[in-house]
Amino acid sequence: MEHFPIVTLKAKDEETFRQLLDLFGREFEETPTYSSKQPDGPYLRQLLGSEFFIALAATRQGQVVGGLAAYVLPKFEQARSEVYIYDLAVATDCRRKGIATALIKTLQSIAKQRGAWVIYVQADLIDDPAIALYSKLGVREDVLHFDIPVE
Q: Of 36, 41, 58, 69, which is most buried, counting CB atoms within 10 Å of its CB?
């Protein structure tokens, strides 16, 4: 079985994070969103060094073939946090090899270290593979998602 090392990206891993952004763009078919206006180095180093952002990359021969970006959200009602998986993708030719599950398992360990009590993620209703993955690992909640513009 092929092995895909998973790396927690830090401030020094700017180039690997840029590979992850390009992967997200390809796999989500949103290359302009993820690749055309990437943040500059200082911004990325600050983000990757933050205690409130987590980026994981699965690699094969030094190339990013999967990854996720998540945010740690401190709660106000109790002294604990939640972790929100904002993006998760695996290269088409590397799917069905356990990479997404391994990424989430790694995130679970990091979330525990950071005092989180739950990890949550949303999936589009038409994304059957994502729904199957998340159903295998957690409990489904049906909610509505609203985007409110900032003016």
A: 58
Please report which confidence band the pLDDT of residue 147 belongs to, taking 50, 70 and 90 as the band edges: confident
What percent of the chain has pLDDT above 90?
Answer: 75
CATH class of 6-137: alpha beta
Neighbour tally for 134: CB within 10 Å? 21
Return all residues near 57 (Cβ < 8 A) that are at least 6 apart: 6, 7, 9, 13, 16, 17, 19, 20, 64, 66, 67
CA–CA distance, 122 with 68 (Å, rounded to integer): 13
Q: What whole-number distance in Å separates Cα of residue 36 and Cα of residue 104? A: 28
Give the predicted TM-score (pTM) of the model.
Answer: 0.88
What does the chain look like in DSSP terms, one character per residue? -----EEE--TT-HHHHHHHHHHHHHHTT-HHHHHTTPPPHHHHHHHHT-TTEEEEEEEETTEEEEEEEEEEEE-SSSS-EEEEEEEEEE-GGGTTSSHHHHHHHHHHHHHHHTTEEEEEE---TT-HHHHHHHHHHS-------------
Q: Residue 87: what residue type?
A: D
